[in-house]
Amino acid sequence: MAKKVAVIGAGTSGLVAIKTCLDEGLEPTCFERTNDIGGLWRFNDDPEDGRASIYKSVIINTSKEMMCYSDFPIPEDYPNFMHNSKIFNYFRMYAEHFQVFKYIHFKTSVLSIKKCPDFATTGQWEVVTEKEGKQEAAIFDAVLVCTGHHTNAHLPLDSFPGIERFKGKYFHSRDYKNPQLFNGKRVIVIGIGNSGEDIAVELSRTASQVFLSTRRGSWVLNRVSDYGYPIDMLHVTRFLNHLKQAVPKSMLNWIGESKINKRFDHANYGLKPSHR
Predict the structure, then answer these.
(1) A GO biological process this protein is involved in (predicted)?
(2) Distance between CA atoms of 34 and 23, rounded to whole angstroms?
């Protein structure tokens, strides 16, 4: 009798989890709290509670050659770095090709996951779910949690004394959707991670002035590297991984910093961080 596996979430990890379970002769059941697959990569004009949220222009920063599922290549006519709509289409093609939809229970929330009383001998779990107000409990031999990690906004307002007297608008990047609302406004973007840099660049085309605030600077990398190849294709290789083990880290840092400073000198722009 096939072992039963609960898969929580039908995003990029949940879909491949279902498919892999089937390959291994297991019996997967996927619970997805929303009405469709895609997780982070399903754009919606309004942020949804409990689901990651992206803005309309988001383009992924890993190349299609490096991010695709190994058993389902991304179509050749898709760009190296895909818009979120292309990524979502790819996940739908994957799900349809491997016929995983029939294993997904949509609009179903997982309320709890607990070890069964006889867990020490059976290794089984009790999973309680809710759909349309009705709760159900089921026993599974294993649980795969595929819920992602960009769901909850980190908005440390206590780090901004006087924020309650600020007359403008403030919000987290998960609530940002497009730049039109900022036409002619002065905006400060706090944080120089991927979203901060991306949003600051996009706002600069519509806002009257944009400031990008960072506590410690950052090494800024571009998606495209030498000869027009995606940077991850050139630098995430077995050869370079072996080289990293053999060459002193200080030398690797010197080589890397020298290279990216040729694009623009981070010190000249006040962006050079204290970390290598």
Answers:
(1) lipid metabolic process
(2) 26
The identity of residue 271, as a single letter, is L
Q: Per-residue confidence at 47, pLDDT binned at 50, 70, 90?
A: confident
Contact 126, 116 (CB under 8 A): yes
State the Cα–Cα distance between residues 54 and 103, nearest whole angstrom. Answer: 26
What is the SS3 assignment for 23?
helix
Residue 56 phi, psi dihedral angles, 5° rounding: -60, -30
In angstroms, how far is CA 146 from the centroid of its own chain?
Answer: 12
Handedness of CA 94, 99, 103, 104 (dihedral sign): positive
162: left (phi over 0), alpha (psi -120 to 50) or beta: left
Q: How far apart are CA 178 and CA 45, in angstroms?
A: 9
Task: Choose the CATH number for 157-262 among 1.10.10, 3.30.70, 3.50.50, 2.60.40.
Answer: 3.50.50
DSSP 147-181: --S--S----GGGSTTGGG--S----GGG---GGG
Closest by Cα among 266, 268, 265, 223 to 60:
223
* Residue with tokens 């996951």, as numbered in its chain: 113
Contact between residue 272 and residue 217 where contact means Cβ atoms under 8 Å apart:
yes
pLDDT digits (tens, 9 = 90+) for 214-255: 999 999 998 999 999 999 999 999 999 999 999 999 999 999
Whole-prediction pTM: 0.91
